[in-house]
Design goal:
The protein is mainly β. The strands form ten sheets. Strands 37, 38, 40, 41, 43, 45 and 46 form a seven-stranded mixed sheet that branches. A six-stranded mixed sheet has the order 4-7-6-5-8-9, with helices on one face. The protein has a five-stranded antiparallel sheet with strand order 14-18-17-16-15, with no helix packed on it. Strand 6, helix 4 and strand 7 form a beta-alpha-beta unit.
Length: about 725
């Protein structure tokens, strides 16, 4: 244990509910997941190194600002101690590693600077610092090793495969260890999410900071460590080889869709294709209409083909103005899509993450903080500002934005608009008289009444920050697990109980919450007993409930009377072309390919022949019917003896979701001689029960071919491959 970091928090910052839980000294408090900032400093300018532990309390600051000057305005020193150097404990007691093919040890990383990032993936503040970590990794590619220590708050977050999907969703490219049992957390005496602990190349703790906004401090410390240990000749500057999770997965037509919006009058469905950074528009039956955005992360305005988003989430439709409003979450913007002119423009936000607590201002001048959902009510656009734990509103006519409800404290607190508190509000809906909120980190459903002149916030169902589970009932007896979406219909709310993998209902007259569909286990089974995998967004049209089934990369459709559930087939949709790849498909096909070399194959000259390609999948797996399977056959040599497609072609390729095995490719044997074929197939395959992550595999065959005049020679070349787990 690092004694110098064992600082118990003041009891008024520890939620009562957390005391009986297994998490040691976890704080869920004001603004940024924690009001505690731990700063441990090591001087790198003197020969005798000493460790200083400084615990400071930030009274009301949304973003703790710390620096090497020990104390700044707004900080209060609680305790200061001085000890000798502290050896960083080893990373043991884990449930598995990701983004690496083997567990990492601090001993093996001697000579590297190590930054431990303690996080949990439902925490918005933990997500906020991912860009900071990426900047540090880019700045110190050969000196710094970032290790994400995932110490889960929710039960659902403890599963390694769920963490794997978050790694893919947020494009995390550093090693992550599953610390589900809090073994590493305890060994470092961590007490808040997010916390970063810096370790020098000799294996000693340099310091620790908690909360957001600490990039400058960490950057400065790393720079000083690099200079000092390079001077000593004790810095390992060889790049660390990793085995990234993304190398084992392929792109799909939809990637982690966050929200959906159904428009019954115009027979269209808007889908926030979040990880493809675009909005997909289809008919309600799935026929593709168009896509909005390039698919590359950015914030450019302009025509559909030029505009860019960054992981968009919630949407709201102003039918009269033919305008779609989009919560452009990671750009911290609100965008307006003119559906008539087919253009996108920014109407709120600066593109920077905001720290302000509200106040009427021109919307375009106000930095926002991870807007997650939007809802139009009588001309006002309400915004679930997940990052600041508040509800805001925007007037499209005056173009003014203002705070509507929430003090900014991360808590469950009912009352007036000003005194109320939310915890990462992520879903909005309305019946015209009230605004309903999925308050995800508090695991509750809230109602904000418009009838009262001063407004009133009340909790309809659920527990609190650390009171979560899967229990139906009424009021405070209900237990949800990180609900992200709500939709209103005929006196009921439909709830996306995200981490329970269920859709539930809340009767607004009786207050009763009941499971509607889903058995609580992740999966993609259709029918009257369906499975879901972290559903995030809901929308109702024509007695159908549309569900953004985020981790299944799909939209599900539920018939409300019968509960019959199906997966929406989006005809014609393909993943966006990636700018950093010459063809996109080619890059995926080449990654991690298994090459199979065969002896010469003989076929009869002067006639048609067939190249038959077959691949055996692992037992219990099937081809993904929505994925763009690809194949390419190339005549490497011998064009005077052999041709493809019966038209003297030298290359044939295709990408199709309905690919069937075996694959038959027509050949034409011309005259006797020798040639060589190269066949390449990329397949996307999933478990039969549709749980777990779908995989991608590329197989390549090189086949010498002899075209002969013998009458008994074959007219078929057979290529057989096998995918092994």
């Amino acid at each position: 244990m690092i004694k110098s970091l064992e600082i118990s928090p003041p009891t008024h910052h520890l939620r009562r509910e957390a005391i009986t839980k297994p998490w040691p000294r976890i704080k869920e408090s004001v603004q940024n997941k924690t009001s505690e900032v731990f700063l441990v400093l090591k001087s790198l300018f003197v020969r005798v190194l000493a460790l200083f532990a400084l615990s400071v309390t930030v009274a009301t600051s949304a973003f703790p600002q710390t620096s090497f000057s020990f104390l700044q305005k707004g900080f209060k020193s609680v305790s200061i101690s001085q000890q000798g150097r502290v050896r960083a404990p080893e990373l043991t007691g884990d449930r598995g590693w990701l983004n690496t093919d083997k567990p990492l040890s601090l001993q093996a990383l001697r000579g590297k600077i190590v930054l431990l990032d303690f996080w949990t993936y439902g925490c918005i503040n933990c997500i906020h610092i991912i860009p900071d970590l990426k900047k540090l990794e880019a700045k110190y590619p050969n000196n710094l090793v970032v290790i994400g220590v995932h110490s889960a708050k929710f039960e659902n977050e403890k599963e390694t495969d769920n963490i794997r999907r978050i790694i893919l969703r947020y494009e995390i490219e550093h090693p992550v260890v599953n610390d589900a049992d809090f073994a590493i957390w305890r060994s470092y005496a961590v007490s808040a999410w997010p916390t970063q602990i810096l370790i020098d190349p000799a294996g000693y703790v340099v310091g620790a900071v908690s909360g957001e906004g600490n990039y400058a401090i960490i950057d400065r410390a790393i720079g000083e460590i690099v200079a000092e240990f390079r001077k000593r000749g004790e810095l390992n500057e060889q790049p660390l080889r990793l085995a990234l999770e993304r190398a084992r997965t392929g792109d799909l037509p939809l990637a982690f869709p966050g929200k959906v919006l159904a428009d019954a009058k115009q027979n269209r469905l808007f889908i926030a294709d979040s990880n493809h950074n675009r909005i997909v528009v289809t008919k309600l039956d799935g026929a593709l209409i168009e896509t909005i955005g390039t698919g590359t992360a950015g914030r450019a305005d302009g025509a559909y083909s030029q505009a860019a988003f960054n992981r968009p989430q919630g949407m709201a439709l102003d039918a009269d103005q033919n305008t779609l409003y989009v919560a452009d979450t990671e750009n911290h913007l609100i965008r307006a899509v003119n559906l008539r002119e087919r253009t996108v423009r920014t109407v709120a936000g600066t593109g920077e993450q905001g720290r302000a607590q509200g106040g009427a201002s021109p919307a375009i001048d106000v930095p926002l903080n991870s807007p997650w959902d939007v809802q139009l009510v009588k001309g006002e656009l309400f915004i679930a500002m997940a990052g600041s734990h508040q509800i805001w509103y925007f007037n499209p006519l005056t173009r003014v934005i203002n705070l509507f409800a929430g003090s900014g404290r991360e808590a469950r607190m009912d009352g007036t608009l000003a005194e109320s508190a939310f915890a990462q509000p992520s879903g909005l809906t309305t019946d015209g008289r009230s605004l309903y909120v999925a308050d995800s980190e508090s695991n509750i459903i809230r109602r904000i009444k418009f009838s009262n002149e001063d407004g009133e916030v009340e909790t309809l169902a659920g527990g609190d920050l650390f009171d979560f589970g899967d229990v139906d009932g009424k009021g405070d007896d209900v237990r949800l697990q990180h609900p992200l979406g709500v939709a209103f219909r005929e006196g009921k709310l439909f709830i996306a109980d995200t981490y329970n993998h269920k859709i539930k209902t809340l009767d607004l007259q009786t207050g009763a919450v009941e499971a509607f569909v889903g058995n609580g286990k992740p999966g993609q089974a259709d029918g009257v007993q369906p499975n879901f995998y972290e559903p995030g967004g809901l929308s109702v049209a024509n007695n159908l409930l549309y569900v953004a089934d985020t981790n299944n990369h799909a939209v599900r459709v539920i018939e409300l009377r019968t509960k019959q559930t199906s997966t929406l087939k989006i005809t014609g949709l393909r993943p966006p072309q990636r700018a950093n790849s010459p063809t996109g498909a080619e890059a995926n096909m080449a990654a991690g390919a298994d090459e199979i070399k065969l002896p010469a194959q003989r076929i009869q000259a002067s006639g048609d022949a067939t190249l038959t390609i077959n691949v055996t999948l692992p037992v219990g797996y099937h081809l993904n019917a929505s994925a763009p399977h690809r194949y390419k056959v190339t005549l490497e040599r011998g064009a005077e003896h052999l041709a493809l497609s019966g038209a003297n072609a030298q290359t044939i390729s295709a990408s199709r979701s309905d690919l069937q095995l075996p694959l038959l490719v027509p050949l034409r044997a011309l005259r006797a001689g020798a040639g060589e074929l190269r066949a390449q197939v990329t397949l996307y395959y999933c478990r039969e029960d549709n749980t777990g992550t779908c995989q991608i595999k590329t197989l390549v065959w090189r086949v010498p071919v002899e075209v002969v005049t013998e009458k008994n020679a074959a007219r078929e070349i057979k290529l057989q491959g096998e995918i092994k787990l």
